[in-house]
Amino acid sequence: MIPAAFEYAKASSVEEAVKLLGKYGEDAKVLAGGHSLIPLMRLRLAQPKALVDINGIKELDHIKEDGSKLRIGALTRHVTLQNSNVVKDKLPLLAEVAGEVGDNQVRNMGTIGGVVAHADAAGDYPTIALMLDAEIVTNRRTIAAKDFFTDIFTTPLEADEIVTEVVFPVANGPHKYIKFRRRLFDWAIVGAAAQKMNGGWRIGLTNVGSTPVRAKAVEEALQKGAKPEEAAQQASEGLNPSGDLRASPEYKKHLARVLTKRAIEQAG
Amino acid sequence: MKHKVATTVNGRRHEHEVEARLLLVHYLRDVVGLTGTHVGCDTSQCGACTILVDGNAVKSCTMFAVQAEGKSLTTIEGMAKDGELHPLQQAFWDEHGLQCGYCTPGFIMAASYLLSQNPNPTEDEIRKGLEGNLCRCTGYVNIIKSVQSAAKAMNGSKAKAGEHSAAARRS
After folding, report:
1. How large is the greatest C-alpha to C-alpha distance in chain B, in angstroms?
2. What range defines the domain where residue A46 resides?
3. Distance from CA of residue A41 to its chain's centroid?
4. For residue B1, which residues of chain A lie inside 8 Å, CB to CB?
5. Interface pTM (ipTM) of the complex?
6. Which residues on A lie below 8 Å from B114 (Cβ)?
7. Helices and strands in chain B: count of H runs, count of E runs
8. Confidence band, pLDDT 50/70/90 cuts, at residue A148
9. In Å, what is the CA distance from A251 to each residue of A122, A258, B13, B64, B130?
């Protein structure tokens, strides 16, 4: 399948990319790892008039420790996060999640900035970003994760705005991400993440709605001393997942409860 | 508008003018003329089109040819050297790691990346390392055996080379 024709320009700096996006306007797309965008273009579900290739922007490929924060450049690839000693040490949950994205070939190309900007409800990083109160930094501003994922494939990003960094808090206590799927390289049918942090738990869910979900009711129940299996019953509270080929809404809610319990119990 | 793309494919330099929308796999097959890289699913799932880009396994159906500018590409045609099959090719032959053979180039390239990262993988690591490649014939058992056998052969020849150089140092 051949994508529709488009104009192509390679940017070597963030300023240049922003300028190019401004020139092409609404119908331009940023090309990072391309592993969501190119499949959509082949199916012609996306037909951007222009692509601005940011793969040559070296400054966007970094992992920096910054006190109690971990600053991840938008162009950092999954394979880099998965193998990074800094990430394994400071936020091991993120390294583990990176290792569960797609397969080797996908992880060699896909980027954290791409996943975040694409805002697929089945994406894994958005869940982690939301539950840990991460910040999404753009060429223009800093947006809290809770204000960033507004709907499926929808974020507050303007046409000439690009994600430059995702900033996570350091958290290296007990943690677990369980990605439930039929084949290893599939998207999550449902995913559940647990992270012990500042004496409490953070619980996040993937693919149970149009945005990632932070299961605050579970967090509060745990805070009050509930056992994991009791607290996990709250995981489906208020959820309204849509059914798809792999799971009905009821089954997704069931998975949310079961996987949340397992994630808390298996957090190590 | 056409774009210049200069690449090294299996050690040979190529330079062409291509449309931006030309996928790398079509560039390799239709422009460079190397048809060993197969198009399987065309939806970034099956891994039949896997090649190495600067040593990293990549699905060439999910990259534009223009993105390969300045890169070094290795396809299945670049594996055999001086008329000798690469140990992975030999192992897939010996262990019957294929039936129809359509997925095989992708498996060999993905396995070669896996062994470059982890020269001595366990069965689980091989299964996880090849998760991005689908085979509809073999049930994977002989593919795993092939990769194990290739790893052994490649480590053996490395060990031998090591012995030789140790012997050379001693003498």
Report:
1. 62
2. 7-53
3. 21
4. 7
5. 0.94
6. 104
7. 5, 5
8. very high
9. 16, 10, 54, 39, 29
Q: Does A182 touch chain B (CB under 8 A)?
A: no
The total domain count for chain A is 3
What pLDDT, on a 0 to 100 scale, did the predictor assign at position A186?
86
Kindly report, residue by residue over B117-135, the tens digit of the pLDDT: 999 999 999 999 999 999 9
* Candidates B1, B42, B132; nearest CB to A104: B132
CA-based nearest residue in chain A for residue B22: A2
Does the domain at B2-78 match CATH 3.10.20.30? Answer given as yes
Do the domains B2-78 and B87-170 sit in the same CATH topology, yes or no?
A: no
CATH of the domain at A161: 3.30.465.10
* Residue pLDDT, tens place only, A156-192: 999 999 999 999 999 999 999 999 998 878 899 999 9
What is the number of other CB atoms lying within 10 angstroms of the CB of residue A86? 14
* Cβ separation B58–A102 shorter than 8 A: no
Cβ contact A134:A167 at 8 Å: yes
Does A238 fall in a domain? yes
Q: Which CATH architecture has domain B87-170?
A: Orthogonal Bundle (1.10)
**Interface touch A109/B62, C-beta < 8 Å:** yes
Mark whether A62 and A135 lie in a shared domain: yes
Give the model's confidence band at B171: pLDDT under 50 very low, under 70 low, under 90 confident, else very high: very low
Confidence of residue B1 (pLDDT cuts 50, 70, 90): confident
A119 lies in the same domain as A199: no
The residue extents of the domains of chain B are 2-78, 87-170
Q: Among all residues of chain B, which has the CA nearest to that of A103?
A: B132
Q: Residue A252: how many CA atoms within 13 Å on its side-chain side? A: 23
Q: Which residues of B touch A185 (CB under 8 A)?
A: 45, 131-132
* A8 Cβ under 8 Å from any chain B Cβ: yes
Q: Do A160 and A226 fall into the same domain? A: no
Do A139 and B165 contact (CB within 8 A), yes or no? Answer: no
| Position A2 in a domain | no
